[in-house]
Amino acid sequence: MSDKPLYVTEPHLPPLEEFLPSLREVWDSKFLTNGGPMHQKFERALCEYLGVEQIALFSNGTLALLTALQALRITGEVITTPYSFVATAHSLLWNGIKPVFVDVDPVNLNLDPAKIEAAITPQTTAIMPVHCYGHPCDVAAIEKIADRYNLKVIYDAAHSFGVESDGQSVLNFGDMSVLSFHATKVFNTFEGGAIVCKDAKTKLRIDQLKNFGFVDETTVVAPGINGKMSEFNAALGLVQLQHIGEALRRRGEIDARYRALLADIPGIECLPPSPGSKHNYSYFPVLVKPEYGITRDELYAAMRTKNIYARRYFYPLISSFPMYRALPSAAAANLPVAHHAAEQVLCLPIFPSLTESDQQRVIDVIRSLGR
Fold it and tell me: Gene3D superfamilies attached here (predicted)?
């Protein structure tokens, strides 16, 4: 059996010969950025595929998060999850906003709606949940709370390309949703991101903010940044869209096979699929329970000796990093579920080109090390 390195994900790329005509088109046009033809085509194609009305492309998902907060003029405090990649909370600090951490649901590891209201203060202006691992948040419960307290909702949907909840795109919930098209994501443009918003007026403001605040050649109306997606990235995205259906199908097969093969291993618990949702299988997290016989970190280290580079997404919690841990909401006693999950979670390799023998190799290592 091959001992090649296996990572949590590998970039999914189209055949090079399919990308070359688009690359030639960009090359010949000499239009490399600034909202060129590929950018416009890609935005329209994404709206159609994702079932959304408005989308604004960005050079990466972090700049999209920063701009979403600016576009909605968010200030004061924002309630968010400690169980995410650091960009979620970093985007708040960069905007001078205080993150307020709330614990997660023990089943789906998303922000727990039952804990949100107790964290609301007169300074709270918004909620920033994360659809963790592409599992939809309880969007209905979050919407009720936001409406009751007149709060904005910005979803960090970095994991949620193509995900649906109750028959519609999860990206249509809240005031805005932010996507990442980083190389490690289900859908990538090498680097990239996007904001999904409700109307053309809001999209116009977003487009101005990502282009230094320019309205026209001589008029600047806001302290914007340079967040534009290049024509090369947009061209790749257009080609990638032709393959996303097959990529998601393969991920679904791998997810199902993992669940079947892990079912009889004591102490290895798979997160359940969210009911009523269409998933994209962006990650395959398992929880390593005491019944397994060795700790998560021991399994993690042992797998690395076998060239299997599983990841502890998300460990440590955001709230444990130095720039956050002094916040009252970051106290471990405030976040028991998140801390428990962070000590047990391990994401296994999942990507469309993962073979059955590669997957069996992962399972064999897990099975051999358990009690």
Answer: Aspartate Aminotransferase, domain 1, Type I PLP-dependent aspartate aminotransferase-like (Major domain)
Beta strands in the chain (DSSP E): 6-7, 54-58, 77-80, 98-101, 124-128, 152-156, 164-165, 168-169, 176-180, 193-197, 214-216, 219-220, 268-270, 277-278, 284-288, 308-309, 345-348
Domain with CATH 3.90.1150.10 in the chain: 245-369
Cβ atoms of 57 and 45 within 8 Å: the answer is no
Annotated active-site positions, please?
185
pTM (predicted TM-score): 0.97
Nearest to 86 by CA among 316, 281, 282, 287: 316
* Token pair recorded at residue 183: 């190389």
Query: What is the fold, at CATH topology level, of the domain defined by 245-369?
Result: Aspartate Aminotransferase, domain 1 (3.90.1150)
Per-position DSSP letters for 229-258, written without gaps between them:
PPHHHHHHHHHHHTTHHHHHHHHHHHHHHH
Give residue-wise pLDDT tens across range 33-81: 999 999 999 999 999 999 999 999 999 999 999 999 999 999 999 999 9
Rounded to whole angstroms, the Cα distance separating 23 from 218 reads 32
Closest CA to 77 of 101, 98, 95, 103: 98
Contact predicate 366/6, CB 8 Å:
no
Residues of the chain with CATH 3.40.640.10: 16-241
Q: What's the pLDDT score for residue 371?
A: 78
- Are 267 and 371 in contact, with CB atoms under 8 Å apart? yes
Encode pLDDT of 241-287 as tens digits: 999 999 999 999 999 999 999 999 999 999 999 888 999 999 999 99
Q: What angle do CA 326, 328, 330 make, to 5 degrees?
A: 70
CATH class label, 16-241: alpha beta
